[in-house]
Design goal:
Helix content: 25-40%
CATH class of the largest domain: Alpha Beta
Number of strands: 12
Distance between the termini: 33 Å
Shape: globular
CATH superfamily of the largest domain: D-amino Acid Aminotransferase, subunit A, domain 2
Structural class: alpha+beta
Number of helices: 7
C-alpha cells in the first residue's frame, strides 16, 4: 500500500484519481457495488487502475481484518502511482438525525460534464460548497445547473417527497449517482413507493412535503430547511424508507 504521493504524480499536479468511501460496520457494506462503480468510472474516463477488482476486494478485506476495523469510514483511493487505504470516524450520530439537515444553495452553478458523474479526487467544488454552507449556518449546499434545476448536494443525492411519491433528479443529469441511491430504488419498489426521476426546479421546491439526502455513510438524512423554506422531518414516507434501508 502506498501511503504517500510524489509531486510528480498526476494526483498531486492535476487532482487525477478515483476514490470510494465505504461504511464498515462489522463488514464493509456494499463493497462490490463500490468496486463496480470505481471500475466503471475507470473505463469511462480512460483511467488506468493497474490492479483488477479482485485485488482491491481482497486487499480491503485483509486491511479490515488486520486492523480490526469497525464502525469506520474506509476510503480507497487509486491514482497513477498506486493506491491508498485510509480510515476516518463517521460523523453522523443519533443527534444528527434528530436535528436533520439545513441546506442552502451553492454559489457554484454547474454545466454538463462527464466528470460530475464519477467520484474523482478533484473535489474542490464540493468542498468549497460544503464550507460555504457551514460558514453560513447550514449543513450542506445544493448544486443547481445554469437553468435553476436541482442536481445534488456537495456530498449526497437529494430526494423530494409529495404524497406517496419520491422525486429525484434524473440519473442522466451531471450528478454522482450514489450507492445508497441504488439501494433506495430497491427499497421503494419493495414498499410500493413511487420513485420518479425528473427535472426539479428550485423555484418549485415549496410544493413538496418532505426532503431527504443520502450517501453511503449517512444513509437517509431528513432535511428540515432549504434556505428559508421549512420541511417536515417527521414525514411518514421518509421515516418508512429510513427504517427499511
Amino acid at each position: 500500500m502506498k501511503s504517500n504521493v510524489s509531486f510528480n504524480s498526476t494526483l498531486s499536479k492535476f487532482g487525477m484519481g478515483l476514490f470510494e468511501t465505504i461504511k464498515v460496520t462489522d463488514c464493509p457494506l456494499d463493497l462490490d457495488l463500490h468496486l463496480d462503480r470505481l471500475f466503471n468510472s475507470a473505463r469511462e474516463l480512460n483511467f488506468d487502475i493497474c490492479e483488477n477488482k479482485e485485488f482491491y476486494r481482497k486487499t480491503i478485506l485483509e486491511y479490515i481484518d488486520k486492523n480490526d476495523v469497525k464502525n469506520k469510514a474506509l476510503r480507497l483511493t487509486v491514482f497513477d502511482e498506486g493506491y491508498n487505504i485510509s480510515l476516518r470516524d463517521i460523523a453522523y450520530n443519533e443527534e444528527t438525525y434528530k436535528k436533520g439537515f439545513k441546506l442552502c444553495i451553492s454559489p457554484i452553478k454547474r454545466g454538463d460534464s462527464i466528470i460530475y458523474r464519477h467520484k474523482t479526487t478533484n473535489y474542490y467544488e464540493s468542498m468549497y460548497s460544503k464550507h460555504f454552507a457551514v460558514d453560513n449556518g447550514f449543513d450542506d449546499a445544493i448544486f443547481l445547473d445554469t437553468s435553476g434545476r436541482v442536481l445534488e448536494c456537495s456530498l449526497s443525492n437529494i430526494f423530494f417527497v409529495k404524497s406517496n411519491t419520491v422525486y429525484t433528479p434524473k440519473s442522466s443529469s451531471p450528478i454522482l449517482n450514489g450507492i445508497m441511491k441504488l439501494n433506495l430504488c430497491r427499497v421503494c419498489e419493495s414498499l410500493n413507493i413511487n420513485l420518479v426521476e425528473c427535472d426539479i426546479d428550485i423555484s418549485s421546491i415549496d410544493e413538496y412535503e418532505g426532503v431527504f439526502v443520502t450517501n453511503s455513510l449517512m444513509g437517509v438524512m431528513p432535511v428540515t430547511q432549504i434556505n428559508q423554506i421549512d420541511f417536515d422531518k417527521e414525514n411518514k414516507i421518509i421515516k418508512l424508507i429510513k427504517e427499511n434501508l
